[in-house]
Design goal:
The protein is an alpha+beta fold. Among the domains are: 94 residues, Pleckstrin-homology domain (PH domain)/Phosphotyrosine-binding domain (PTB) (PH-domain like, Roll); 78 residues, Structure-specific recognition protein (SSRP1) (PH-domain like); 128 residues, PH-domain like (Roll), CATH 2.30.29; 84 residues, Pleckstrin-homology domain (PH domain)/Phosphotyrosine-binding domain (PTB) (PH-domain like, Roll), CATH 2.30.29. Helices cover 20% and strands 38% of the residues. It has 11 helices and 32 strands. Strand 17 and strand 18 form a beta hairpin. The longest helix is centred in the C-terminal third of the chain and has 17 residues.
Length: 550
């Protein structure tokens, strides 16, 4: 009852973002977050070693437990050292050791794996350490380079990582030259595989995978393995190894571990070539390869390809955990088996093409280009999706309007293709070009059915919206007539803008003769000026003079 308790305020536990209170008593120590339910306690008998060192958040008390775990408390001030040293010696009979850190700023040194951390040292002094439980992925990005990714929402750590504020280190790269086993002539062997297996790079790469618990599952140990699957984005062939809580993508130089909780969307879409089927996986956060982010993975399967696989699950697990939604053995088309397993393991609905939209060739998508990238655009029930590169997801609810361009009604200048632009409510625009002209009617009807506002641009040479041409009465009337002709050519409704006063100068039947007159070799400069004057004056007595020149 009379046990003395010493307290330190504003202390962090490990990498937690919350401040808390650290209390030390003879029976042990405890940390409690100021807000929330964060609580951590340690008995005095479990303490093995204590160390004081400089850290990013002022000074750190590092405690090694008898089971090998390391507990870190950050936020101490320099003046707290003497007080904390006396408390630890009195209560636990331990010495508070001091550890000097390297502050040279060198970016080369030695690495070691100790107590669940990757330690980087310079001249036998620790410079920094990386908790390996924060490593979510590692891959070989160059001949002598290893990349590690940090802080992803992997498993139970996802909720904690999403709550962190401020900047966070997400990637590091290590350059590892040389051979692990220097044996003289051994380095001159012609067998490149042997040299690679013996390199320091490969040893370092495997050590990270093993220590960080991201290479714990060997190929074939999961529920099912789909080998040599073609991925369009990111490009390459991968083995998809599916486990109860995550999947692994194994490529030649990359190995990704993706938690099912980070999969937020699934799409199963037939390709317009009637040969392939695309399976699209939406990720949050995206998959990262260096500086490139991939929010969508696009896999391609041959439509008629079939697979015969057996799941590494017993009947009881299928009946209880998966509620009978899986089968012990599958003999079906590959894309059907893959989509069924993803749907069951992730708990996400698989989006299929809309029944409302069909292209001119009775397909579920239209071919188009996004900048210099060719692909297909799928009008879905609640969104548009462009794939394969770059995969672009456009929800209907975020579309402000859709603009069609190069769909003029003049048959002489009509193009075989038209352009489409999505004007988003956020101010961002998505433009698609080279769409077959025959797709206009079906696409426009789909947008009208979804109650998405559409508008058509004037002739591409002006680059102005028809509704915005208001320079003069004659221009406004001409613009309305052009818009009406567009609607008539593509099956639109009547012009509901109302009647305007007739313009005696505008004669639709004579427009073609006037244009031909400008390119007539017999037309003189003075005749051209007289023609323009006649148009400006609006008098009828000048028109016979023009026609007599033919």
């Amino acid at each position: 009852m009379g046990e003395k308790v010493n307290q330190f305020d504003d202390i962090y536990l490990d990498l937690a973002p919350e401040l808390g209170l650290l209390r030390l008593a003879q029976s042990g120590l405890g940390w409690k977050a100021r807000r929330g339910e964060g609580l951590f306690t340690v008995r005095d008998a479990d303490l093995k070693r204590t160390t004081w060192l400089r850290a990013a958040r002022n000074f750190q008390l590092r405690i090694q437990l008898r089971d090998g775990r390391i507990v870190k408390f950050d936020g101490f001030q320099r003046d707290d050292f003497e007080k904390l040293k006396d408390i630890i010696k009195t209560n636990y009979g331990l010495q508070l050791e001091t550890k000097e850190m390297s502050v040279k700023g060198w970016n080369w040194g030695e690495t070691d794996f100790s107590n669940g951390n990757l330690v980087f040292s310079v001249q036998n002094k620790e410079m920094f350490e990386i908790p390996l439980n924060e490593v979510t992925n590692t891959s070989l990005t160059a001949k002598h380079e290893v990349m590690i990714e940090l802080g992803g929402p992997d498993g139970e750590g996802g909720a904690r990582d999403k709550n962190r504020k401020g900047d966070q280190l997400v990637e590091m790269r290590f350059y590892v030259p040389g051979q692990a086993n220097q044996e003289g002539e051994g380095e001159e062997e012609s067998n490149a595989n042997v040299s690679y297996q013996d390199s320091k790079l490969y040893v370092f790469y495997n050590s990270i995978k093993n220590e960080a618990d991201i290479g714990d599952a060997a190929p074939g140990d999961g529920i099912v393995l789909f080998s040599d699957t073609l991925c369009l984005t990111p490009r390459g062939r991968y083995d998809i190894d599916m486990f109860p809580a995550f999947l692994r993508l194994r490529g030649k130089t990359t190995d990704y571990k993706i938690s099912y909780t980070s999969i937020i969307k699934l799409f199963l879409l037939p390709k317009p070539d009637d040969v392939h089927v695309l399976f699209v996986i939406g990720l949050d956060p995206p998959l990262r390869q260096g500086q490139t982010r991939y929010p969508f993975l696009v896999f391609q399967f041959v439509r008629e390809e079939e697979i015969d696989v057996s799941l590494n699950l017993d009947d009881e697990t299928i009946a209880t955990k998966y509620e009978g939604k899986l089968e012990k053995k599958y003999e079906s088309r590959t894309y059907e088996v893959v989509s069924t397993l993803f749907k069951t393991l992730t708990g996400r609905r698989v989006t299929i093409p809309s029944e409302i939209f069909k292209s001119y060739h009775n397909q579920s998508a239209i071919k188009c280009s996004m900048k210099a990238n060719e692909g297909v655009l799928y009008p879905l029930d609640k969104s548009f999706l462009f794939i394969p590169k770059p995969p672009t997801f456009i929800p209907h609810s975020e579309i402000g309007s859709v603009t069609f361009s190069r769909v003029g009604g003049n048959a002489a200048s009509a193009s075989r293709t038209f352009d489409l632009k999505f004007n988003m409510k956020s101010g961002v625009d998505y433009s698609f070009s080279s769409i077959n002209r025959e797709e206009y009617t079906n696409l426009n009807e789909f947008l009208q059915n979804k109650k998405i506002k559409t508008k058509t641009m004037e002739d591409e040479s002006t680059g102005r919206y028809v509704e915005m041409v208001e320079d003069s009465d004659s221009e406004e009337d001409t613009g309305k007539r052009k818009r009406k002709s567009v609607v008539q050519d593509f099956g639109g409704g009547d012009d509901d803008e109302g009647e305007s006063s007739p313009d005696e100068d505008f004669v639709a039947d004579e427009s073609e003769s006037d244009v031909a007159e400008e390119f007539d070799e017999n037309v003189s400069d003075s005749g051209g000026s007289n023609a323009s004057d006649a148009s400006d004056d609006g008098s009828d007595d000048e028109r016979p003079a023009k026609k007599s020149k033919k």
